């Protein structure tokens, strides 16, 4: 009897332990021991614990490596103003003692939803004071400014200042609201897909052992085999990050718990997001506003159709959501392709200055427009009413310091 009890106990322990272990290490599934939700930007894949916890017993170094693995390229491309290497300089040791800026987690703590500011910042918003307390000594324009205003739209960002650094502002002082000539990237559309009439298997063949033969709706892997640039962009965005692990990419899963706040139509929740959601190849044509509106129904999205931009065309293509959110890129080999990471030029919104607005508008007008939440809500219907003084301050400083060597050449005007 006693022996039987022990046996039952052991079996029960094994069963429970096994079930917990299975939950913990089953790839792509919810681990029930999470200490709390991850940052809003990570919730689409927060349940894939191994995306950050790359090994069961790995520590902070491995987590830091995971952050850099997903974000390193973008931060480098953004010419990060505060890269870790700046802080390895011994002259900055006193600053590091205040705030260890070599570690992402110092400013972006996970699993602590109660202290999250926009863009995953988990420090109080005036934290620039930790290192730049004496800024007003060097710059009279900054006297009387409070430290919670440094990162105000149009002023500074911590990482990406490509549209905000001093020589850039200097070069764009006094620009008119509209450029006389728009920069128009060449269209990439051929309207005809090679192989569509012959090599059906390129898209419709299955390589799954359990499902040989024909697949009617081609899976993302088939497209990605030939379109790596587009696939990589898609998989780095909120739209597609789940497909990195091949887990289902249903809209409801992308949203997780956030369905109420994101302006996604409730009848889109059951849809899968993949290449063929936007691309119909047998009857090709551009991706339209309606493609996006089938899911997006927040105030900003609804306002687009009645905004002045919606009446414009760019080259052969109408101005659409994609003009701003899927901008064109020139790749290393000089080909013009479409950026598929709709998250990449969104936050902070000055990322859109150089990728989109400056093609047609002047810098001063653009910074004013992007700084106004109301204009974003109305999808840029109406003129900006507030003014960001950054360019004026640079002009004053330039005048005071006399003629200088002209700003260096840049990759983009
Ligand atoms: C986006 C990256 C990311 C994902 C995804 C993630 N974590 Fe974490 N996790 C972290 C970071 C960073 C820390 C260190 C946080 C700290 O020290 O404040 C951490 C810490 C922890 C800790 C230790 C908490 C503590 O108080 O010391 C546990 C336990 C944990 N995570 C479990 C999980 C589980 C379970 C999942 C999946 C459901 C998960 N994590 C998903 C980044 C992540
Ligand atoms: C000293 C604080 C600090 C540290 C350290 C830090 N960040 Fe940030 N991060 C910020 C702030 C503030 C923002 C908000 C936007 C801005 O000001 O650039 C931000 C925004 C971001 C964003 C979204 C906006 C963007 O420009 O892409 C990403 C992604 C990001 N950080 C990743 C990282 C990673 C990865 C690391 C580590 C290599 C890191 N951060 C280290 C403060 C920090
Ligand atoms: C598997 C890839 C992946 C890993 C690992 C990862 N991130 Fe992210 N991160 C993303 C994606 C995708 C987004 C959402 C899109 C965007 O904002 O670029 C994001 C968003 C962010 C943001 C903006 C948050 C917001 O709510 O707007 C910050 C900050 C950030 N990540 C920092 C980190 C840090 C710090 C780590 C390491 C603990 C990390 N990331 C690990 C993919 C990753
Ligand atoms: C942990 C310390 C630290 C924090 C926090 C910090 N900075 Fe810096 N910052 C530096 C260092 C180091 C430099 C390099 C130049 C120097 O030595 O002053 C720098 C440079 C800059 C520059 C000049 C960048 C360039 O490209 O020349 C600006 C502007 C700036 N920081 C603004 C900010 C703002 C705004 C914040 C808050 C959002 C901030 N910093 C937070 C340490 C910090
Ligand atoms: C065997 C390689 C191959 C596969 C597989 C493939 N493509 Fe293509 N695709 C191409 C080539 C080559 C072009 C023409 C490129 C150009 O015009 O520069 C093209 C052009 C395109 C275009 C622009 C032209 C048009 O007709 O609209 C889109 C969009 C596109 N592909 C999407 C997809 C999608 C979605 C899939 C998966 C269902 C896919 N492709 C699978 C090779 C491929
Ligand atoms: C470059 C990728 C690609 C190639 C090559 C391709 N298809 Fe498709 N096919 C698609 C996509 C994407 C869809 C989804 C619907 C659409 O695009 O209209 C599709 C859908 C279909 C459908 C379902 C249509 C429906 O209305 O449900 C059929 C049937 C089909 N393809 C037949 C073929 C045949 C036959 C060939 C070879 C002669 C071929 N396809 C070659 C990408 C491709
Ligand atoms: C949310 C919608 C959306 C999704 C999802 C999407 N695309 Fe696109 N794609 C676009 C837009 C917008 C364009 C620009 C051309 C246009 O307006 O039709 C484009 C253009 C393309 C082109 C033409 C070449 C270029 O870069 O301009 C290819 C190839 C392509 N996409 C492949 C893919 C692949 C592969 C996937 C899946 C990994 C994918 N797309 C997913 C919206 C999307
Ligand atoms: C099948 C549904 C679907 C379609 C079609 C779709 N989206 Fe999305 N989109 C989503 C979901 C879900 C999110 C995530 C929202 C969130 O996380 O708050 C999203 C997020 C976004 C974001 C914010 C990304 C971020 O990092 O916060 C932008 C911008 C966006 N979509 C633009 C577009 C554009 C432009 C199109 C058309 C070319 C489009 N979407 C088509 C479902 C869709
Ligand atoms: C003139 C450029 C422009 C056009 C056109 C545009 N957007 Fe945006 N969109 C933005 C900017 C800038 C933001 C960043 C807002 C911020 O700072 O938070 C944004 C933010 C978003 C977001 C993130 C969350 C939100 O709702 O604020 C989504 C989703 C989005 N746009 C979808 C769309 C869709 C869908 C369309 C077409 C119906 C569209 N956008 C047209 C510039 C544009
Ligand atoms: C392809 C060129 C083009 C691009 C790119 C573009 N715009 Fe515009 N924008 C225009 C034109 C042209 C008008 C005037 C339209 C009219 O009044 O009919 C305009 C008007 C505006 C207006 C005033 C609207 C009104 O009601 O008078 C604002 C604000 C604006 N744009 C902001 C932006 C911002 C911010 C971006 C970048 C996210 C941007 N635009 C990108 C061409 C462009």
Largest pleated sheet: 2 strands, antiparallel
Give me the strand/helix succession.
HHHHHHHHEEHHHHHHEEHEEHHHH
Count of discrete structural domains: 2
Radius of gyration from the CA trace?
25 Å
Mean pLDDT rating: 87
Provide the low-confidence segments as ranges.
Answer: 20-31
Report the strand count: 6
In terms of topology, how is this protein built?
Blueprint: H1 2-25, H2 60-77, H3 84-88, H4 93-98, H5 129-132, H6 135-138, H7 166-171, H8 201-204, E1 205-206, E2 213-214, H9 220-226, H10 228-235, H11 251-255, H12 275-278, H13 289-293, H14 299-304, E3 313-314, E4 317-318, H15 321-325, E5 328-330, E6 336-338, H16 351-355, H17 363-370, H18 373-377, H19 390-401
Antiparallel strand pairs: 1-2, 3-4, 5-6
Helix pairs in contact: 9-10
The structure holds heme C (10 copies).
